[in-house]
Amino acid sequence: MLFTSILISCEDKKPQILHAFSDSFAASWELKLYQDRTFYLYLPVSDNSGKYHINGDTIHLEYTENKQGVWPRQFLIDTLRRTVTSPDSQQIIIELQEYTKNKTHRP
Fold it and tell me: What CATH number matches the domain at 2-105, 2.40.160, 2.40.128, 3.40.30, 2.20.100?
């Protein structure tokens, strides 16, 4: 538990290009994209991380670990509705908190 807290603290210091977070009485979800093309995803069951690339309004995720469960492979960014949604699982809708769109996000 302590290791996870330290890891998260270090990741929070990296420059972010996107932060999406939703919290309800049942669960919370969080997605962070960093400038170095790494990401952190927290779902109610667990968390995971890896590398990403953005193509248009779609975030494509590649996980570093094969954790149990079904992990979304992509998210759609909707800047008008200020949401990030997984087409893999329509249940995952995260409120977009911050998004810095620029040309450096592409591979």
Answer: 2.40.128
SS3 27: coil
Residue 37 in 3-state DSSP?
coil
Q: Does 50 have pLDDT greater than 90?
A: yes
Does position 65 have pLDDT exceeding 90, yes or no?
no
Return the number of other C-beta atoms located less than 10 Å from residue 86's C-beta.
22
Amino acid identity, residue 77?
I
The predicted model scores a pTM of 0.76
CB 73 within 8 A of CB 60: yes
